[in-house]
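Hi everyone,

Forwarding the result from last night's run.
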Amino acid sequence: IGVIGQDPSASRLLAKFEEARIRTECVVRTNDRPTIVKTRVIAQHQQVVRFDREKKAEFPSELQAALKIQIDRVLPQVNAVVFSDYAKGVISRAMVRALIPAANRRGIPITVDPKVENFNYYERATCITPNLKEAMEGAGVHSLKGDGDIDLIGQKILRKLKAKSLLITRGEKGMSLFERHRPPFHIPTRAREVFDVTGAGDTVISTFTLALAAGASLRRAAELANEAAGIVVAKLGTAYVTRAELLRALDKRRD
């Protein structure tokens, strides 16, 4: 569920979705704003700069109402809810406050890749997945004296948001999973080579959520997400992991 404009970029995006067999009936088109386009400048396999074409003004009420119609229509059909929050206007406090209780009543996992300015929206989610910088800002911490501070940040955010769990991605140091009434679970990185971290956070939350929807425990889901992220960062550009790649990596781990 998202919003795109009435422009050539929107048409290209929909064609890509359909080519990948991604359902598009919940995408709302509007004349109110253009489709967001991100342009990355790459030099010698490194991203130098990125510039975005977008309009970030608050959504008009009719656009918010159109999004709510799609949410109410599709929620009974899904096995999980992912909030991918880029603070571009789609996700509002009202939407989150209505959707999280509705998903909780259905017993389906709710995961959040948060934007710091919207951190407080996500009370009682199943899992929040910030990177370390976002977690520090969300907890109001400005510097780390040691790894022990990560545990303090994790527990503070869990209490603050009353979330079931928190998964902090820590780059070359892997991930840290925090759950209520359980000790922290630290997972070392699986990445052998890092060419491009673009999309790594999206890989983490999508793999993690898919595993939860399939019945995996939080710890097992986090391990799978960590494995998937290690594969993606070894690719150049906005990449994804396939089922076959993930299975091969897991087979090697067992060997």
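The mean pLDDT is 90.

Cheers,
N.
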